[in-house]
Amino acid sequence: MRRKSSSVRSGRRGGKARTAAKALAARQNILLRWHPPGRDGVIPPAALIDGAWYIGDGRSAPIAYWDGVSETFHTLATNSWSDPIRYPEVTKRTVRLKQERHVGAGGTFAPRRILSSAA
User: Fold this and answer.
1) Strand ranges across the sheet with 110-116
2) Which of 19, 39, 41, 46 has the fewest Cβ atoms surrounding its Cβ within 10 A?
3) Cβ 116 vs Cβ 41: under 8 Å
4) What is the 8-class DSSP label of residue 112?
5) Partners of 95 in the beta sheet?
6) What is the pLDDT of residues 21-44, one digit of tens each?
7) Spatial CA neighbour of 21 closest among 9, 12, 33
8) Kind and range of the H or E element at 115?
9) How confident is the model at residue 83 (pLDDT cuts 50, 70, 90)?
10) How far apart are CA 104 and CA 119, in angstroms?
11) Residue 74's beta-bridge partner residues?
12) What value does the mean pLDDT take over residues 79-86?
């Protein structure tokens, strides 16, 4: 009789398999890494003003622009070594526009204070 592998017996699927448990673990790791517990004062999504700039905690920048239509924050991220082949040689700096969702919706930006509102 053939014996089942340990991953089949325990019900775990590894590698590139997508499961609800892996997605939940990834969201929890994002929250723990970028937004440690004990830091409250996050502005809820319903109170955000479309077109306003916010100061907060984000993965790529501490300042972000709230786009109410797409319900995402837009941040600027810079990278000094854009060419992995030439690393660690510092090459031309690149600037990218990134989108981050609100931390309350499983994203990575936590707005704490409004910087300026839309005119």
Assistant:
1) 94-100, 72-79, 63-67, 53-57, 110-116
2) 46
3) no
4) E
5) 78
6) 888 888 777 767 666 666 668 898
7) 12
8) strand 110-116
9) low
10) 26
11) 65, 99
12) 70
